[in-house]
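Friendly challenge for the regulars: who can give me the structure tokens for this chain first? No prize, just bragging rights.
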Amino acid sequence: MKSYRKELWFETRTRRAYINITPQIEECLRESGIREGLVLCNAMHITASVFINDDERGLHADFERWLEKLAPEKPHSQYAHNGFEDNGDAHLKRQIMGREVVAAVTDGKLDFGPWEQIFYGEFDGGRKKRVLVKIIGE
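First reply, four minutes later:
Bragging rights claimed.
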């Protein structure tokens, strides 16, 4: 069995963002040479997420409205976590959207259903953060 590891780095100018990272993951898969196996992508920061969904602008706006209803950014004083930082909402948003995805690799390609794409979700932007890509297989 072969193993491949790479870190992808992101720095958003906005506090929250959704970035389609499917092309970067597909490039990692090509680099790995693995044709059958699994790919794991996980956010290495507790205020960011990796998830699978559709790359559709309206859906991303829906994510934003929904997450703000569940864990609004302000007032910052509503979160016991906030003190040194003001990102209590970002921790909760990450918990909702998830830490990682695992996808099957078949014949050298991501084995996705229609419209599935991999996204990096940023909930406390303005600094560099990373995503781990780990691919195992033959």
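Helices lie at 22-32, 57-70, 88-97. The mean pLDDT is 97. Your move, everyone else.
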